[in-house]
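Inverse folding, one chain.
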């Protein structure tokens, strides 16, 4: 839940108003308004100016404008009030700063956003740093697979260990993306998430490739052409 009460007092303070005027004064009007037309139409000029000021503070830290603007537009489209949208923009700014410690603020926007998503989901920062360092090209898709695994009900530790196991056995990105579906099927059959993961990992250890049968029994009828596998190197604490 986003708390907005602390922000409303800050918006009324003289210091905030001075900072707002200073920021708006140095940014060309067209740059401020072109991508916030819909927000302005729904919230008015005053609220949009405050949101623009928050976006500019993020830009000063090297954050991509598109992600912050998209958050404001999303809130406006959902009918959120200006203070809620402003709080959401500030929250995303903080999350993207943290994501920058994983992938760097100069990273591709997709990787920066997925790093923020991963941290928000509870994935370990050190795990994400190592993951990005070893395979930045597929980083976003691997985080998608991890998020999907977490939605099956497994813990963060189990999801991360399952990925370590899968990657060490040479599973490719398209195969990693199938793992959550295999776990989900077993859960629907009545297994606990932990039992489902254990069954899928047993199939992996048997030398099979995804998709796996529901009971984890090896199925040697599936053959795939060789592709270069993903290889991650993990630090052992």
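Residues assigned per position:
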């Amino acid at each position: 839940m986003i708390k907005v009460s602390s922000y409303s007092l800050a918006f009324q303070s003289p210091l905030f108003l001075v900072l707002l005027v200073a920021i708006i004064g140095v940014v060309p009007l067209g740059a401020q308004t072109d991508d916030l037309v819909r927000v302005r139409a729904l919230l008015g000029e005053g609220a949009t100016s405050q949101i623009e000021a928050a976006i500019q503070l993020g830009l000063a830290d090297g954050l991509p404008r598109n992600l912050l603007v998209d958050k404001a537009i999303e809130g406006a489209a959902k009918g959120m009030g200006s203070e809620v949208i402003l709080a959401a923009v500030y929250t995303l700014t903080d999350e993207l700063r943290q994501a920058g410690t994983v992938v760097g603020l100069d990273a591709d926007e997709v990787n920066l956003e997925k790093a923020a998503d991963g941290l928000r989901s509870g994935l370990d920062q050190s795990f994400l740093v190592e993951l990005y360092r070893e395979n930045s090209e597929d980083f976003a898709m691997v985080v998608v697979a991890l998020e999907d695994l977490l939605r099956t009900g497994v813990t963060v530790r189990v999801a991360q260990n399952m990925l370590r196991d899968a990657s060490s056995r040479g599973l490719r990105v398209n195969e990693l993306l199938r793992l959550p579906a295999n776990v989900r099927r077993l859960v629907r059959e009545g297994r606990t998430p932990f039992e489902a993961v254990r069954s899928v990992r047993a199939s992996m250890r048997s030398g099979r490739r995804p998709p796996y049968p529901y009971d984890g029994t090896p199925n040697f009828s599936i053959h795939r052409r060789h592709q270069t596998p993903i290889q991650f190197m993990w630090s052992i604490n």
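The first helix runs from residue 5 to 12. Residues 78 and 136 are 33 Å apart (CA to CA).
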